[in-house]
């Protein structure tokens, strides 16, 4: 069978041409990478879990009026998405100190932030996705001031939704990363949530025990990554049947 045209291959996902103009098929791989791909492995079932979890979160966001690229899940590993022009930023929201913030600022992991903090990294693997101030983003034309205001407001709405839904199943949303896409439908370009939302891109801690249920399990060799993601899927009631 003729394979669809590959548009882009990333570390954890591949994008193929979609069936209609303006659509793409997003394929979730089992590959896990950390520290800018210096550490890598293949985790059986991770792609299936992330496909299902990203569908769950993106659908929930659409239900509360937050626009996303997600159209529908096609099968265990693939979803149909809207093609967007990716804003070259990683938009990170932090509710509690962890990861690079703890390291940079010398703040103990788990310390609550005075309020959710939104920060930006420039998407560039060769540079290791450096953190950038808003001044760079506007001066280099990656986004306008209006875009940035809209991106921050989208990120905070995503934070409210994710924090609430995860808290309801006993999980603390420590931080997460989203990517934003520009879509040219109608008269004006719009900004929508793109890429994926999954335990690959969030820090999720069990509220009772503090157990880590996210990619830090892989980064820090804390055990079985698929087990951790399965726990998140089970609690949210979206466990795929044959992982
Ligand atoms: O490493 P750092 O503490 O900056 O990560 C903040 C959040 O962003 C974490 O949830 C991490 O999983 C996510 N992240 C990501 N992709 C990156 C960098 C960070 O999903 N390239």
Give an account of the 3D structure.
By secondary structure, the chain is α+β, with helices and mostly antiparallel strands. The model has no long low-confidence stretch (mean pLDDT 96). Helix content is 28%, strand content 32%. The radius of gyration is 17 Å and the shape is globular. The protein binds cytidine-5'-monophosphate.
Give me the number of helical elements. 6
Bound molecules: cytidine-5'-monophosphate
Average pLDDT number? 96
Radius of gyration: 17 Å
Overall body shape: globular
List the SSEs and their pairings:
Layout: E1 6-9, E2 13-17, E3 23-28, E4 31-34, E5 39-42, H1 46-63, E6 70-73, E7 78-82, E8 85-86, E9 89-96, H2 99-105, E10 112-122, E11 131-132, H3 134-139, H4 145-167, E12 171-183, E13 190-194, E14 202-206, H5 216-219, H6 225-235
Antiparallel strand pairs: 1-2, 2-3, 3-7, 4-5, 6-7, 8-12, 9-10, 9-12, 10-11, 12-13, 12-14
Helix pairs in contact: 1-6
The structure holds cytidine-5'-monophosphate (C5P).
State the gist of this model.
The chain is an alpha+beta fold and 243 residues long.
């Amino acid at each position: 069978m003729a394979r669809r045209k590959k548009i882009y291959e990333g570390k954890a996902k591949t994008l193929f041409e979609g069936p209609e103009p303006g659509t793409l098929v997003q394929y979730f791989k089992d590959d896990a990478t950390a520290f800018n791909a210096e550490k890598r492995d293949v985790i059986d079932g991770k792609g299936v879990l992330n496909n299902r979890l990203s569908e769950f979160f993106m659908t929930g966001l659409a239900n509360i009026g937050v626009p996303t690229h997600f159209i529908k899940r096609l099968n265990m590993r693939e979803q149909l998405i809207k093609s967007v022009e990716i804003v070259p930023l990683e938009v990170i929201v932090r509710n509690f100190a962890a990861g690079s913030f703890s390291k940079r600022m010398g703040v103990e992991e788990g310390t609550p932030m005075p309020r959710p903090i939104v920060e930006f990294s420039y998407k560039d693997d060769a540079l290791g996705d450096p953190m950038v101030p808003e001044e760079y983003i506007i001066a280099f034309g990656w986004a306008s001031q209006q875009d940035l205001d809209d991106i921050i407001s989208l990120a905070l709405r995503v934070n409210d939704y994710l924090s609430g839904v995860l808290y309801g199943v006993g999980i603390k949303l420590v931080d997460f990363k989203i990517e934003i896409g520009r879509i040219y439908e109608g008269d004006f370009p719009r900004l929508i949530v793109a890429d994926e939302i999954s335990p690959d891109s969030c820090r999720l801690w069990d509220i009772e025990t503090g157990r880590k249920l996210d990619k830090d399990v892989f980064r820090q060799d804390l055990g079985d990554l698929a087990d951790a993601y399965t726990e998140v899927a089970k609690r949210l009631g979206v466990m795929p049947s044959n992982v």
